[in-house]
């Protein structure tokens, strides 16, 4: 039996701001994102028949608190927490709910209120990522904290920095290539009024302030406060409310957690290399498409080197030079043009869903 279609018919964002820089709380953040998505879809909250909320920091049922601002309609509200992939999980679960046929219109909502750096809130129990950090040390990575960083942030950064070093050895990636990725991403921020930092940085300033080589400060995603939401619906719902002109179909979305190969002696694997590859392969198998059908890829770029690693991982060896060493402004203009006609949403759900 062919699967029911799932369509995104509205999206909304708040502006992202540095932690502690604005006096707002998560219910306001969530509400603003949700309202923006509903407004974009042009539908009333009364038509939503379930909400899947994602956040990492905060108490249980924070989702209900945020969504109740839209009204008390009694619909199911699910909370999901999966580190960097939390928002994609909310999207995926919303899609599955619609696909089940039991729900016609589901709101996927994500919000976060963070600290500077990543923080650990529960110190009386085993951290879920500990096995990964221990394994990283077993492979020779120093246990010493990166100066001025809290130990969890330090370990997360090391996962990617040491993975990038292994990648450089294997593929000859250079620090200039990492810097070009960060340059491109910062350059793009000037066109995005919702971005936390809207500033173009020179290659020279990007390459200064090394935190843990090859990662420099300007190559890190900032921690930030903000929210995002999407309205997902069935084909019947789309037709009934005349939403076809806004609809983008989710052709395939897959999630992968650790594989036996995550612990195969490679620092790249600890950072999610194999999981990302499998997620993409699963999407291709599910959709019947191949890499040659893809017009644009949007990657998890928590650190510039992670984007580089996944270019090679998801695309093909040799593509890296083509993508990174071209005239970046030209590439950007092409990418910005393509953004308006997305054909496939790929979610590479590899990041830190650690729990071994
Ligand atoms: C890198 C990190 C530790 C820096 O945190 P911090 O020391 O608190 O730094 P701040 O956010 O206060 O920024 C300090 C300065 O550097 C700047 N800065 C921070 N990140 C930057 C970036 N990526 N590019 C350019 N400038 C940056 C800030 O704008 C700030 O400048 P200002 O003093 O002029 O305002 C933090 O952003 C972080 O943990 N990022 C990684 C998040 C992460 O791991 N995500 C998940 C990965 S899977």
From TrEMBL:
Annotated protein name in UniProt: Sterol carrier protein 2 isoform X4
Organism name: Hydra vulgaris (Hydra)
Upper classification of the organism: Eukaryota, Metazoa, Cnidaria, Hydrozoa, Hydroidolina
Encoding gene, per UniProt annotation: LOC100208841
Gene3D superfamilies: 3.40.47.10
Taxonomy, superkingdom: Eukaryota
Residues of the Thiolase N-terminal domain: 8-196
């Amino acid at each position: 039996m062919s699967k029911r279609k799932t369509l995104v018919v509205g999206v909304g964002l708040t502006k992202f701001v540095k932690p502690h820089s604005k006096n707002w709380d998560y219910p306001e953040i969530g509400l603003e994102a949700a309202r923006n998505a509903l407004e974009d879809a042009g539908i009333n909250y009364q038509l939503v028949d379930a909400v899947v909320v994602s956040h990492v920091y905060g108490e249980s049922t924070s989702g209900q608190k945020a969504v109740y601002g839209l009204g008390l309609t009694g619909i199911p509200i699910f909370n999901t927490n999966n580190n960097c992939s939390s928002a994609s999980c909310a999207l995926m679960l919303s899609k599955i709910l619609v696909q089940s046929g039991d729900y016609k219109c589901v709101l996927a909502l994500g919000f976060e209120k963070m600290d500077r750096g990543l923080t650990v809130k529960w110190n009386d129990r085993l951290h879920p990522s500990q096995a990964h950090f221990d394994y990283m040390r077993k492979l020779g990575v120093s246990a010493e904290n990166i100066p001025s960083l809290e130990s969890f942030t330090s370990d997360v950064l090391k996962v990617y920095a040491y993975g990038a070093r292994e990648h450089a050895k294997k593929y000859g990636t250079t620090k200039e290539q990492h810097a070009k990725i960060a340059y491109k991403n910062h350059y793009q921020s000037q066109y995005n009024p919702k971005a936390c930092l809207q500033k173009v940085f020179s290659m020279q300033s990007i390459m200064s302030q090394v935190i843990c080589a090859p990662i420099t400060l300007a190559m890190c995603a900032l921690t930030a406060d903000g929210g995002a939401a999407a309205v997902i619906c069935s084909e019947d719902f789309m037709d009934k409310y005349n939403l076809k002109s806004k609809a983008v179909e989710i052709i395939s979305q897959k999630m992968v957690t650790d594989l036996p190969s995550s612990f195969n002696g490679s620092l790249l694997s600890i950072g999610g290399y194999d999981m990302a590859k499998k997620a993409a392969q699963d999407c291709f198998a599910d959709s019947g498409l191949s890499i040659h059908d893809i017009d644009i890829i949007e990657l998890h770029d928590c650190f510039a080197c992670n984007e580089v690693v996944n270019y090679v991982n998801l695309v093909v060896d040799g593509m890296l030079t083509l993508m990174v060493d071209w005239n970046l402004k030209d590439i950007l203009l092409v990418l910005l043009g393509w953004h308006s006609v997305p054909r496939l949403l790929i979610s590479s759900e590899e990041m830190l869903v650690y729990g071994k």
